[in-house]
């Protein structure tokens, strides 16, 4: 007999976050990096909504809203950076974006 | 148990009736009307061979599209190419599902409590429609990208840029409808219009909403993505046979959805006349079958007027230039919509 | 369905990318203008503002019945004002011009 | 016997993790983006299951309908070949599997050690209104007005940031230099 518990929700959230994080670290192109970042934020959102359900109030939903706002801003600015990177280097490989390296 | 059975039959009936009406009758008839009106406007006859007055022309076309050779262009990206037309049908079908096409009814005493005449009764119906229609961008982008043809990609980019720009304008117009009705439930929005149709307080938002829905459905005067002369036919250049037919069908069904939305938001849905309800006319639309049928037909009539407007405008107005189009969306409609929300909120607050 | 019913008569040219009957010229993977990105990004940011306006608009009547109408109006007006600053900024910067 | 809602939850969770893995490991960004859309859809269904109806709609409206649209736009605009994308992996993924496995094991021990975490989700006190748009809106505007306004300011800042990044040199964006650049890259492609 298995019930859905907060532990299961947290495992799902953790799993999504790890997938995103793993992808973030092993991918070379900036676009995939940003996509994986979205995946990580989605994992966080699952935890927020799950806790909201656990405690029976809607603070988690509000936080979800704020996370979505941050995600949108991050995507917008991040993609602008990617476009600029492409304009400068003619590729978007993160392993070659080393201009700031001392 | 028998109650459950009746409920299920009712649900099944609603689904079959509605999809049957929309995909089997409304869309084909719309295509026929479109071509007849085109003939009328251009002083020619239009389809007149198949069936009486050419009424069966759409059926014949459908059979033809079905029987056509399934052509797969060489350069396309196969799975995505095949996926795109299917994705285009999904938002069209899903957004239909939540549109109420008549008042809540007991069907002349068949049910204890009034049943809603919609396939899926959602308390976030309006937002659901907005969310689902925002997904129709993907079929366009996917079709253009997977076709691997420069006209297709350019057409897809243009189409989707236009769709999202005007989606914003229509979204803000809808915010003022929410402000006026205080609900996102489509049935409640209609109920809120018993006193006054929202066209009167929300005249500005209607004039934002109307161009926006024309643009979102990629119709003339906003059909630049298809601009035959420059772009062949846009994102579905490489499509033929039933795959093209699906795009075509979903375009016409989305047209019906947005017309229904316009009627629900601004023209009182199935309400009789502004300030004059069915109850005042002595007709009980909830408990008598005849009242329900009358109200539903009245709603259908309003939607048909809107659909006719679509066709009429298509064959009357010329096409915009692309910069004019984007300028209209971002520099006219958007500020007007924001201003309108501000005014309505101000009037309501004080 | 069509796979069953349709006839299958392929010949090589039929599956060429469409180009008004003449052979295709130029590279297919052309890069397109960054203008499209700007439209999409403005859409994204303003769309979220719209989503934020929905709860505000929805609870307006409830607050009005409790006598908090002016308060909620000010809240919304500040939000709309911020939104308008963004729009004016884009306008002044020329972000909204298609023919730059 | 598991309740239908529980079965649905586990099925959805499995699908979400599967699509998540596809997002993270598909080689081309466009495929990642498409799987991401499906992932967001499934997550939205999960939110309905958790009683968050409004959040579920917003998930589709904003994430799937706006954020991923932006991604697909940029992917289409750049239209990159594998070499420009940087094929292959920066770091071998096996090391991460080890790391994540360790953390999961620790978490598992922690969960088993605290049984209240494994109890079924508590009953809601107001199941009819929880998570609906109405209750969410009132909650937001009663308790979190400042977050509401600050979110607006954050969006404004993002608008300005994008303006600064993308509009530094309007002429070079799609003036003659852009065309020269693209013709150059095309020439390289032709040579290769």
Describe this structure in words.
- The complex is a heterotetramer of chains A (102), B (350), C (100) and D (192).
- Chain A has 102 residues and is mainly alpha-helical.
- Helix content of chain A is 76%, strand content 0%.
- Chain A contains three helices and no strands.
- In chain A, helix 1 packs antiparallel against helix 2 and helix 2 (30-55) packs antiparallel against helix 3 (59-89).
- The mean pLDDT of chain B is 77.
- Helix content of chain C is 60%, strand content 0%.
- Chain C has one domain (2-93): NADH:ubiquinone/plastoquinone oxidoreductase, chain 3 (Methane Monooxygenase Hydroxylase, Chain G, domain 1).
- Chain C has three helices and no strands.
- In chain C, helix 2 (35-65) packs antiparallel against helix 3.
- Chain C has helices at 2-5, 35-65, 69-93.
- Chain C is mainly alpha-helical and 100 residues long.
- With 192 residues, chain D is an all-alpha fold.
- Helix content of chain D is 77%, strand content 0%.
- Chain D contains nine helices and no strands.
- Chain D has helices at 4-25, 29-49, 53-78, 82-85, 94-113, 133-143, 145-166, 170-174, 176-191.
- The longest helix of chain D has 26 residues, at 53-78.
- Chains in contact: A-C, A-D, B-C, B-D, C-D.
How would the blueprint of this fold be written?
The complex is a heterotetramer of chains A (102), B (350), C (100) and D (192).
Chain B: H1 2-41, H2 57-67, H3 78-97, H4 125-133, H5 136-147, H6 150-181, H7 186-191, H8 203-216, H9 228-231, H10 241-266, H11 289-316, H12 322-349
Chain C: H1 2-5, H2 35-65, H3 69-93
Helix pairs in contact in C: 2-3
Chain D: H1 4-25, H2 29-49, H3 53-78, H4 82-85, H5 94-113, H6 133-143, H7 145-166, H8 170-174, H9 176-191
Helix pairs in contact in D: 1-2, 2-3
């Amino acid at each position: 007999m298995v019930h859905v518990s907060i532990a299961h929700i947290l495992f799902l959230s953790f799993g999504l976050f790890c997938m995103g994080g793993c992808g973030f670290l092993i991918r070379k192109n900036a676009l995939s990096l940003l996509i994986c970042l979205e995946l990580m934020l989605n994992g966080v959102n699952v935890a927020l909504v799950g806790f909201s359900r656990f405690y029976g109030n809607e603070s988690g939903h509000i936080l979800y809203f704020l996370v979505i706002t941050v995600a949108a801003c991050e995507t917008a600015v991040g993609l602008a950076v990617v476009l600029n990177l492409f304009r400068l280097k003619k590729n978007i490989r993160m392993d070659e974006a080393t201009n700031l390296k001392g | 148990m028998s109650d459950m059975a009746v409920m299920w039959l009712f649900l099944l009936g609603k689904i079959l009736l509605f999809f049957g009406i929309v995909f089997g009758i409304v869309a084909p008839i719309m295509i026929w009307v479109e071509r007849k009106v085109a003939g009328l406007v251009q002083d020619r006859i239009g389809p007149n061979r198949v069936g009486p007055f050419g009424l069966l022309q759409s059926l014949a076309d459908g059979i033809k599209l079905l029987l056509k050779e399934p052509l797969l262009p060489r350069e396309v990206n196969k799975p995505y190419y095949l996926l795109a037309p299917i994705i285009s049908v999904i938002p069209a079908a899903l957004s239909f599902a939540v549109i109420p096409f008549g008042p809540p009814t007991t069907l002349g005493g068949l049910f204890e409590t009034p049943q809603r005449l919609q396939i899926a009764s959602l308390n976030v119906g309006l937002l659901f429609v907005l969310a689902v229609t925002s997904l129709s961008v993907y079929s366009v982008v996917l079709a253009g990208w997977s076709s691997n043809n420069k006209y297709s990609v350019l057409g897809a980019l243009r189409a989707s840029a236009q769709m999202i720009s005007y989606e914003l304008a229509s979204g803000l117009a809808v915010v003022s409808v929410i402000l006026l009705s205080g609900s996102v439930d489509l049935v409640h929005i209609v109920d809120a219009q018993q006193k006054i149709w929202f066209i009167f307080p929300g005249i500005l938002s209607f004039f934002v909403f109307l161009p926006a829905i024309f643009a979102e459905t990629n119709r003339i005067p906003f059909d630049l993505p298809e601009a035959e002369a420059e772009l062949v036919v846009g994102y579905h250049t490489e499509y033929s046979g039933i795959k093209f037919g699906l795009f075509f069908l979903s375009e016409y069904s989305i047209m019906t959805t947005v017309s229904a939305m316009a009627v629900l938001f601004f023209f009182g849905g199935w309400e009789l006349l502004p300030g004059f309800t069915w109850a005042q006319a002595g007709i009980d639309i909830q408990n008598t079958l005849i009242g329900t049928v009358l109200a539903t037909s009245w709603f259908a009539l309003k939607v048909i007027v809107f659909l006719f407007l679509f066709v009429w405008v298509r064959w009357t107005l010329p096409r915009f230039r692309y910069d004019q189009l984007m300028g209209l969306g971002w520099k006219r409609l958007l500020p007007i919509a924001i201003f309108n929300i501000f005014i309505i909120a101000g009037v309501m607050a004080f | 369905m069509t796979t069953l019913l349709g006839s299958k008569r392929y010949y090589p040219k039929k599956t060429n990318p469409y180009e008004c009957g003449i052979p295709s010229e130029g590279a297919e993977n052309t890069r397109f203008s960054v203008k499209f990105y700007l439209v999409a990004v403005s859409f994204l940011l303003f769309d979220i503002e719209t989503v934020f306006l929905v709860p505000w608009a929805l609870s307006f009547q409830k607050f009005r019945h409790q006598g908090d109408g002016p308060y909620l109006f000010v809240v919304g007006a500040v939000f709309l004002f911020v939104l308008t600053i963004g729009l004016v900024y884009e306008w002044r910067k020329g972000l909204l011009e298609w023919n730059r | 016997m598991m309740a239908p809602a529980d079965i649905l939850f586990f099925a959805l969770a499995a699908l979400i993790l599967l699509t998540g893995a596809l997002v993270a490991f598909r080689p081309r960004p466009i495929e990642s983006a498409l799987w991401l859309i499906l992932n967001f859809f499934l997550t939205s269904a999960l939110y309905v299951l958790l009683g968050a109806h409004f959040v579920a709609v917003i998930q589709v409206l904003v994430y799937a309908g706006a954020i991923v649209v932006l991604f697909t736009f940029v992917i289409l605009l750049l239209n990159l070949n594998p070499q420009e994308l940087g094929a292959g992996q920066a770091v071998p993924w096996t090391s991460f599997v080890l790391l994540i496995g360790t953390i999961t094991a620790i978490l598992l021990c922690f969960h088993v050690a605290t049984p209240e975490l494994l109890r079924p989700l508590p009953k809601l006190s107001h199941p009819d209104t929880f998570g609906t748009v109405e209750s969410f809106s009132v909650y937001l505007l009663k308790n979190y007005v400042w977050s509401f306004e600050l979110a607006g300011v954050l969006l404004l800042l993002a608008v300005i940031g994008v303006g600064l990044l993308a509009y530094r040199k309007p002429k070079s964006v799609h003036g003659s230099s852009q065309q020269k650049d693209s013709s150059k890259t095309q020439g390289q492609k032709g040579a290769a």
